[in-house]
Amino acid sequence: MIVYLYEVVALACIFAIASMSLNLVLGRAGLFSLAHGVLLGIGAYIYGLLTTQAGVSPAVGVVAAVVGTAVLGAALAAVSVHLDEEQFAVTTLAFNLLVVIVLTNWASLTRGAYGVAQIPRLSIGDADPQLMLLLAALLLAALTFVAFRALAKSGFGQLLVASASDPDMVRALGGPVWSLRVRAFAIGSAGAGLAGALFAMQAGYIAPPLFELHLSVLILAMVILGGTRSVGGAVLGAVVLIGIPEALRFAAFNAVSAGPLRQIVFGLLIIVTIYVRLHSKTSRA
Amino acid sequence: MTAASGSARGGVEIRRLHKSFGGVRAVWDVSFTVPAGKTVGLIGPNGSGKTTLLNLLAGYYKPDAGEILYGGTDLAGLPPERIARAGVVRTWQDPRIVPDLTVAENVAIGALARGAGMPNDAARRALLAESGLTAVADTPAGSLPYGQQKLVAIARSLAASPAVLLLDEPLAGLSAFERQHVVALIQQFRTTGTVLLVDHAFGVIAQLCDHVVVLNTGTKLTEGPPGVISKDPSVIEVYFG
Asked: Which domain covers residue B81, as residue numbers?
């Protein structure tokens, strides 16, 4: 039971890192990204492949996942942040689909549909690896919180909010809106990469279906549930959306109805959060 | 480094500027100079091309032909952020404030956008005080009345420390009290900077401007000192008549 709790708390921390980083992209920069889940997947694959195939140490693997995902995120942003909101959302959605197809079919690099197994965890001496992962996830989530809150309150964060609200105004005052957005997306992708590396450690095994669109939608729902303007809210959203399905595991009447019931409640939650998001947007315009 | 310290730096020379939308000649063969350190008024009836001209100067539109010479370079066709960083900064008729940010944060955007970093406390307080915004510094700008939002917008442009300020109807829609604040801000700025002021109210133009350019149907009707322009029969016919 205690190991199970460790796992759930670590998973909540991992998704809190993912949702805090998407909070910068969506809540500050106003970029409605449907690629955050697959960026997390890219981080997971960089970590998983480097540590299992290339003999890289877990610590170096984490750094590589953060940097590599940030670079790929920057490349995606560079060709898409000038688009309007709907076009941007569709472009990131296409990126999500495309990366999953590549992960599935470029088997010589990614091991294709077999996935990557026996992914190692960070370890120090003979400490309990599950406890180690929990502590690492807690520490990194706390650091991510401090960093992203400082970013949100900084001049960079204020400019991002202004650029989301009125990009022409910011440009007319000298603000490089394109480069501001690319930087925000790259930083957000770095957070997704970190979450991905931890996710790969936690799961021990990764395969392409894990990173299909539902994961992006899940992280998006966490951010929207917590309120897009608050870094703390993103943490709350992650805790709730990771915690509720786990709680429902025990609330179900019998083992047969547990799975479908969780899916139904989960689906309803996502519909409600998206509805709230769209509704608040139209009422503000 | 104050933006308007140089004397030669602030002048703008507009040469044979053209801009059409479809078949409509919005600005046609317009030339005039805004000398460094002077305030030039741009007047004309609705649809005469004033705002289009401002949009050309600020880089929002690309001219079809013509030059906008500033400090030895041609600004025509440059993107808005380059023009702003060169020192030519505009305002709009609408305040275009960011409603969710506070007044102080909105004003700071002027400095942040041009890459000058977060303004220090003293500079920020001084600008807010000059603009009469000290009392509402920490209020979300969206909750202010229209006139105060407009003051925020002008303070924001000043925070970008421009050499040339392009003001699009800064006094439209303001109460008499708010006008005083805006006029004081413009007068304060014109002691060191260059201004192109677009407005309908000829009284304000006469009070603030050294020189007036009159547009009509996209072309320059005439130009001269305010005292001469107000008595020009052709101006009276299209503008006051």
From this structure: 12-87+162-240
